[in-house]
């Protein structure tokens, strides 16, 4: 029996399942109905699905499709029916707004929509086991997902009666052809791109082996280099030595300073009453330290706004331990970092209370549950209790029992008890709390809303000051229609520090620790590298990041203002299998400092731990990947990036570009809406463009990541060499000639063939003879020069090895 017929027969069996109509809970619905639908009736394998997948603090029921997720399915218990309006049953193309007339359905759609958009997954599905609705959830084609179409089946019987449609759009084979997307947006079938070279390479992407020396360096990089600011016990010395002030506009960014200024100005302009920067040219903003003292009186929290990775946590630690140390001498710092806290918290207020109570005891020696402390806190209540009928001291045992019950009642209200305790501490010792709720923007929207409300409750009723650190996008969303809408807030913005300064300070800190302490007692035992060699290695990196302008430009742009990413790039380089660590040390032994070649750094961050470029694992995007059998599409993504940057840098622009403008541009070059949408999805997923719903229909903001890719990396042999295995070749004659090769000579020859192929596709490109913001013909010239330079260096190295070999044998 063929798979289609077999699957239909399985669905027929499912029609008589006792679970249907039983009111089964979600777990049973998933096990007995949804699992059967996916794995028995739609051709998916259990290996294709991940259940209870965790990402950014949320768990989803099913993520289906590998290596790239095809859809996310949110399961509801069998008894939760998705009630459709009269006359809808039997119809399959139903608008999402129509479905959302039913509250249960609307809640489920919004839930899975959020999951899909966080993960960049195109299709969202909701199902209770006997009903199903699928819709385009992650799209930026000018149509909001909640206004699009859905494919809906209102019963298992309807699925069976229309099994050709169910199978044709939701089966494994169907989704791989994107037939559902075309159905939902009304496009005709377009030929898919041919297979990539990667698909024919055994054991792709493979793992790059490391020597023992490189493995040890990777471990030491973990200790000294990687992002340490979230470690609970980091020293004041680390905070002081490694902190870099924020606010300096990058001098290396491929984006103009006007675009960068517009980005930060838009944040300030969007805050009612304005927003202050946390730093000035003279140091910490005095208004911030003043607000730290007066915020408790104004009964409102201080909001710190900063994009991901700009250093909000490091700024707060430096503020508390260095900048405002004197101001906070009598403060009780209570710090809850939600990066390290559990994903789910049933009672957030109780949880925050528990964490702060623990810190009061461990960090400040105050046990708020100590018997004598409790009696001191509730001294007024005890005196009042003595005047009641239970305060009769004729029966001391009964009195003590009733007093304990009375105090236990107060202690049971944990949030209130902590508040009373802090008021007592302030009254008796003049010490006020400084509450910090950090990294809440790494949690789901609902969780963030709860934290906002807790922060305002604390600020409104507790003594002291409350800090909340969040992203601008999170703040604006909540400000518009979330918890912050009902409150007045005090806002300060944190802008990125210079990445080269952050890296250099971190390296110099690590070097100082090695020189100060030596390897003994600092590093694990039995390492293959000693402290002298490690100092030499760190010297090479310090020199590179102090004097190599090209390297600084690469890291600054590719990190996109995210210092955490910049440190991750550095960590990726340290101990990489693409870097000749032994040569670094050999050069040091000769009394010189190794000059880090640019191509080594590029290959390290492009390949990571793998033998081949893997788009799922690399921090770098393939500009030339395509979705259709249309060679012109190789240039669509770089053209979109160049167009977005040109518009953003035009006079009067606020740095953003409307989605409709991007689609009009792409369609003017002869591309379909589907091709444009797919490339925009890739751009947003890889931070080449940032999508926003602030304008009707959506808008995009160019990033330095995207700009650097098409303006610099696309010219590089190291980049092109890596991308060849991941790029579909539409010309069969060229495709046969593009093979998996390893020697530098063969790789250079292959790169030339790939360049010639792209040249030929550019000639067929609609915009090749007209003025476009991206010109492959110009890039091709630069690439040819870089290939020629790499060829010269390879020939020189081969000649030196030959001479050395000849001298040895003679």
Structure description:
This protein is an alpha/beta fold. Helices cover 51% and strands 10% of the residues. It is built from 34 helices and 18 strands. The strands form four sheets. A seven-stranded mixed β-sheet has the order 1-2-3-5-6-7-4, with helices on both faces. The protein has a six-stranded parallel β-sheet with strand order 8-15-11-14-13-12, sandwiched between helices. A hairpin with a 6-residue loop joins strand 17 (689-692) and strand 18. The longest helix is centred in the C-terminal third of the chain and has 34 residues, at 776-809. The radius of gyration is 30 Å and the shape is globular. The model has no long low-confidence stretch (mean pLDDT 82).
What's the gist of this structure?
The protein is 51% helix and 10% strand.
Structural descriptors:
810 residues; 7-stranded mixed beta sheet; 6-stranded parallel beta sheet; 51% helix
Give the strand line-up of the largest sheet.
1-2-3-5-6-7-4
Helical fraction: 40-55%
Largest sheet: 7 strands, mixed
Number of DSSP E strands: 18
Topology:
Layout (H helix, E strand, L loop, with lengths): L2 H13 L10 H16 L7 E7 L2 E7 L6 E5 L17 E3 H4 L3 H17 L3 E5 L4 E5 L12 E5 L2 H6 L1 H8 L1 H4 L3 H7 L26 H13 L11 H7 L14 H13 L6 E2 L1 E2 L2 E2 L1 H13 L3 E4 L6 H12 L7 E7 L10 H17 L6 H7 L1 H8 L9 H17 L1 H16 L2 E7 L6 H17 L3 E6 L1 H10 L8 E4 L5 H19 L13 H17 L1 H11 L3 H11 L7 H9 L8 H10 L28 H13 L8 E2 H10 L4 H13 L3 E4 L6 E4 L1 H8 L5 H7 L8 H6 L6 H21 L11 H34 L1
Parallel strand pairs: 3-5, 8-15, 11-14, 11-15, 12-13, 13-14
Antiparallel strand pairs: 1-2, 2-3, 4-7, 5-6, 6-7, 9-10, 16-18, 17-18
